[in-house]
Hints:
Blueprint: H1 17-29, H2 34-54, H3 60-71, H4 78-86
Helix pairs in contact: 1-2
Amino acid sequence: MNTATLKPARMELKTTYDAKELLNRAAALDGMDLTSFVLGSAMEKARQVVAEHALISLTKTGQTALAQLLTNPPLPTPAMSELMSLADFPARKA
């Protein structure tokens, strides 16, 4: 990330002197300024977290169970039928 480009959003954070020194040292070793180093690391982690929450991973057994439920959904319980009637959803009949 090039910090020479003007950015409209600003973030500030408080830390210890030791933490800041460590981050400065790591940034320098990577040939980056502190802002680019911290923001780049945070963005990488943010993308990872968002991606992990965007995917659903199923085992083969789970995939089979899901396919079975989608192909042959169970009949709604009486409580579900009552709830669906409140919103005018068509209920499956037994």
